[in-house]
């Protein structure tokens, strides 16, 4: 894991961009207390070093007809490279799947997906089982109490 040497201004820039990636370089520079060109160079460096992976717009999933979030716990009895490659290919091809994590403990994989409704989930499930799963168990989100994409920067 590469650790990057970040200064106080880098941290301020990251905090601002995590809250609003649409801020102009001028707005960021003013809030951080540096010139526009120095701010632009800092942002470009953070991007080149992949501290900033990407800048995106976060959509309201209900407004794009994806009101249901589902977490799918997956277990496999095939712990080999061929199966893992097939599984990766299957999940990469399903746009409803937002995240896939290989886990320690009881689960092998945890999948986060969004769907329109139960028939939408059924279509997702039928696509997912093409990966030859041993066991899949789903839990649907009933209420979201906290959701953020902002990483805590107090550890820098």
Provide the descriptors you would attach to this structure in a database record.
156 residues, alpha+beta, Arc Repressor Mutant, subunit A, 2 domains, four-stranded antiparallel beta sheet, 5 helices, 36% helix
Detailed description of the structure:
There is one protein chain. 36% of the residues lie in helices and 17% in strands. It has 156 residues and is α+β, with helices and mostly antiparallel strands. It folds into two domains: 8-48, Orthogonal Bundle (Arc Repressor Mutant, subunit A); 61-140, Alpha-Beta Plaits. It has a four-stranded antiparallel β-sheet with strand order 2-3-1-4. A hairpin with a 6-residue loop joins strand 2 (97-102) and strand 3 (109-115). The radius of gyration is 20 Å and the shape is elongated.
Mean pLDDT, to the nearest integer, reads 96
Cα shape:
elongated
Q: For this structure, what is the CATH homologous superfamily of the largest domain?
A: Lrp/AsnC effector binding domain/regulation of amino acid metabolism (RAM) domain
Name the CATH class of the largest domain.
Answer: Alpha Beta
Largest sheet: 4 strands, antiparallel
Strand order of the largest sheet: 2-3-1-4
CATH topology of the largest domain: Alpha-Beta Plaits
Gap from first CA to last CA:
14 Å
The amount of beta strand, in percent, is 15-25%
| Computed Rg | 20 Å
Structural class: alpha+beta
Q: Which percent range fits the helix content? A: 25-40%
């Amino acid at each position: 894991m590469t650790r990057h040497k970040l200064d106080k201004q880098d941290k301020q820039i990251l905090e601002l961009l995590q809250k609003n990636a649409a801020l102009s370089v001028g707005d960021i520079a003013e809030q951080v207390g540096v010139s526009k060109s120095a701010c632009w160079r800092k942002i470009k460096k953070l991007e080149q070093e992949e501290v900033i992976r990407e800048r995106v717009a976060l959509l309201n999933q209900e407004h794009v007809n994806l009101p249901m979030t589902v977490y799918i716990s997956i277990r496999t009895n095939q712990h080999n490279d061929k199966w893992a490659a097939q599984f990766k290919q299957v999940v990469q091809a399903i746009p409803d799947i937002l995240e896939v994590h290989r886990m320690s403990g009881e689960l092998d994989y945890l999948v986060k997906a969004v769907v329109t409704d139960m028939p939408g989930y059924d279509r997702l499930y039928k696509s997912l089982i093409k990966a030859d799963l041993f066991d899949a168990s789903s839990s649907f989100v009933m209420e979201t109490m906290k959701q953020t994409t902002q990483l805590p920067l107090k550890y820098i």
